[in-house]
Amino acid sequence: MKKCFFVLIVFFLLGAIITSKPKAYADSQQITVNADILNIRSGPGLSYPVLQKGKAGDRFTLLQTKNDWCEVQLSNEKKGWVASWLVSVNSQLKNTAGIVTVNDLNVRTSPELSGTIIQKLQKGEHVQIFETNNEWFKISLKGTTGWVSNKYIQLTHKSSVSSNGEMITISNNGTNLRSQPSIESSIVEIANSGETFSVIEKVNDWYKIKLHEGNTAYVASWVVSSTVKMNRTKSSKVISKGLKGKTIVIDPGHGGRDSGTIGITNTLEKNITLRTAQILADKLRNAGANVFLTRDDDRYVSLPSRVSVSKINHADAFISLHYDSIDDQSITGHTSYYYHSVQKILAQKINRGISNETNIYDRGTRFGNFHVIRENTQPAVLLELGYLSNPLQEIAINSQDYQESITTGIYNGLEEYFR
């Protein structure tokens, strides 16, 4: 009897270990102690004995997370556990580029407002990012390193590809040619359908082109056709068949006093949904669709008002954009929700479009009891496009690459739906 009892206990403990699913990290992932005194324990919980103590500012290599605890590497080659709410995660962002989005951005000696200002950056300048600390990026520019607020840096994960004589042709009238590879940069010229340009290089989903008078500009790859096929694992090129003349309502979730979920480094869901909506709207309009946004700035819009925009404009598709959050920081992925059975095919097409375009974990198409799709008489879906509660996915979500890929996936899903 005792033997059977012992076997059952062992089985139970093994099952608990297996189902806890700790999240492992690369050696470059670091944590910084925020508390004045930090207890480093032998296991992930307050009941475990204290191995040693840390102090504010100490750094350790992060090995894995489990629930609300982080396992770290200690200097004596031992390992210990610390409470995640008493530390901050510092990610090493190798080969990550960013664009400054404001003028006179302060570069400081340390990741805090009390840090000495050593330089000022101007809007449009490119920087290299190689570390994060809460709401700060450590950057390198013109031989100088320092810390800047991550609120004013747009990640690009720049990767340039030489064109080798490539030519592109503009697909739509009124296409914007911009000063930088971002839809937020200034417009330097307007091009029309049929115009051709020489490509200097490709930067992510943008072409750097040579204008007819010799100057340069950037144009988005999804609004042009190319005479040379680029060697890419995933193709962001989209076609406009089926979208022209369609009415699409894009609903950026939350806004104003409703911030939505808040990420590990304080990314506000309301801000990132608006940014996603604006990028998606730009792509759809270039394809000839009639696009309406339920909000185009940071303001509160009631759920019934959002549905009204869909009904009044007789939307061919209503797309509500959101980012998710959960207590388990290891969870990632995207999910597409429908309420009425007639909405399911739209949700499936968009979900497949996102999965085909990105490497984000696919959590599937599901039934969801959400007001904006439940009360909507038009084809409508609600999309959860990633988890701000996951530290690494939050960084990705804020990047230009992620935003371009996710919106291209939605675009392709809509195009397939209307085909």
If you had to describe this structure to a student in words, what would you say it looks like?
This protein is of the alpha+beta class. The chain folds into 4 domains: 21-90, Roll (SH3 type barrels); 96-155, SH3 type barrels (Roll); 160-226, SH3 type barrels, CATH 2.30.30.40; 247-418, Aminopeptidase (3-Layer(aba) Sandwich). The protein is 22% helix and 36% strand. It has 7 helices and 29 strands. The chain has helices at residues 2-20, 269-286, 303-312, 344-357, 371-374, 391-397, 400-418; strands at residues 23-24, 30-33, 37-41, 50-55, 59-66, 69-73, 79-83, 87-90, 96-100, 105-108, 117-121, 126-133, 136-141, 144-149, 153-155, 160-162, 167-170, 175-178, 187-191, 196-203, 206-210, 216-220, 224-226, 247-252, 290-293, 317-324, 334-338, 362-367, 380-387. The strands form 7 sheets. Strands 1, 2, 5, 6, 7 and 8 form a 6-stranded antiparallel β-sheet that branches. Strands 16, 17, 20, 21, 22 and 23 form a 6-stranded antiparallel β-sheet that branches. Strands 25-24-26-29-27-28 form a 6-stranded mixed β-sheet, with helices on both faces. α2 crosses α7 (400-418) and α4 packs across α7. The protein starts with a helix and ends with a helix. Mean pLDDT is 80; it is low at 1-28, 157-162 and 228-240.
